[in-house]
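From the methods appendix. Each design record in this collection lists the tokenized structure first, followed by the designed amino acid sequence. Records were kept in a plain field format so they could be parsed without special tools. The example shown here is representative of the layout used throughout.

RECORD:
FOLD TOKENS (298 positions):
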């Protein structure tokens, strides 16, 4: 029987595998250690053992207790991950909505946004066109699909994360030590919406706008503007978990799950009873799996 590994399990294994590197390993060595173990699992010609199969099933159960049910694309498209990968963050106002304008059926809506403000980077143009993805997470996930489906109208304002050319799929973006690499010329230079519609945040000139801008500034400050500090980032996520805006809360919780690749954060989460119980269950299993495999916990 051909061996398969779900994308969700891939990410769960990646979280645990990232602590394999030797003490004082560089971020690049840490990244390679995590990827190496996952690649070994995926390429092995032998079927999963009973223990491996049980482990992957347990990861799947734990994912269901997390925000967004651990959906991998959303997990890579949170505010924290977008802050690591973006080239620009702007505030734009919709000047035109075009339906059916894209060549790709999964992107049925194209927005033209007049740029009001550059929050990060400097986009040297007055407007930008972005294509929006049609979300469908399948049967049983209709409520999750509905969260990312909406109508668009001229005059609406959005905070937008943009990337130059296109964003590669990078699982190592989940690591706290991830650093944005140099731009690859073959990706092109045009600004593109980062992680499809996940890179778009509606603004209302009220509480939602204030919360989105504060959260975005916090992420960009921690991850791009200042020297990266794990303790500061952890405090930011714990604060944003209490945001009155659902998307910010769930993104912060998901970013905390992504941070469980760092042993000291596993310890912090398990010691703090105020952390979401689904996240603590996930942390317990991370620790249990690490111990079973004899991984280091420096």
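DESIGN:
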């Amino acid at each position: 029987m051909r061996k398969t590994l779900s994308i969700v399990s891939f990410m769960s294994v990646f979280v645990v595998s990232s602590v394999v590197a030797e003490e004082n390993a560089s971020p690049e060595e840490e990244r390679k250690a995590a990827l190496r173990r996952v690649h070994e699992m995926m390429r092995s010609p032998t079927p999963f053992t009973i223990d491996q199969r049980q482990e992957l099933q347990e990861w799947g159960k734990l994912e269901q207790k997390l925000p967004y049910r651990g959906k991998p694309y959303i997990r890579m498209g949170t505010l924290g991950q977008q802050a690591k990968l973006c080239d620009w963050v702007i505030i734009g106002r919709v000047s035109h909505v075009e339906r059916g304008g894209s060549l790709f059926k999964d992107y049925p809506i194209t927005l033209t946004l007049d740029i009001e403000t550059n929050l990060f980077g400097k986009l040297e143009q007055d407007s930008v066109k972005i294509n929006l993805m049609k979300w469908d997470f399948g049967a049983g996930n209709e409520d999750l699909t509905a969260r990312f489906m909406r109508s668009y109208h001229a005059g609406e304002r959005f905070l937008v994360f943009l990337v130059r050319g296109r964003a590669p799929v990078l699982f190592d973006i989940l690591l706290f030590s991830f650093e944005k690499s140099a731009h690859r010329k073959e990706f092109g230079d045009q600004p593109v919406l980062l992680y499809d519609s996940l890179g778009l945040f509606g603004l209302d000139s009220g509480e939602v706008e204030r919360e989105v801008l504060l959260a975005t500034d916090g992420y960009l400050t921690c991850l791009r503007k200042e020297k990266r500090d794990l303790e500061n980032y952890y405090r930011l996520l714990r604060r944003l978990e209490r945001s009155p805006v659902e998307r910010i809360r769930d993104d912060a919780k998901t970013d905390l799950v992504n941070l469980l690749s760092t042993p000291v954060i596993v310890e912090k989460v398990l010691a703090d009873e105020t952390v979401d119980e689904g996240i603590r269950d996930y942390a317990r299993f991370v620790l249990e799996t690490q111990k079973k495999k004899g991984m280091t916990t420096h």
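APPENDIX NOTE: Residues 1-8, 18-24 have pLDDT under 50 and may be disordered.
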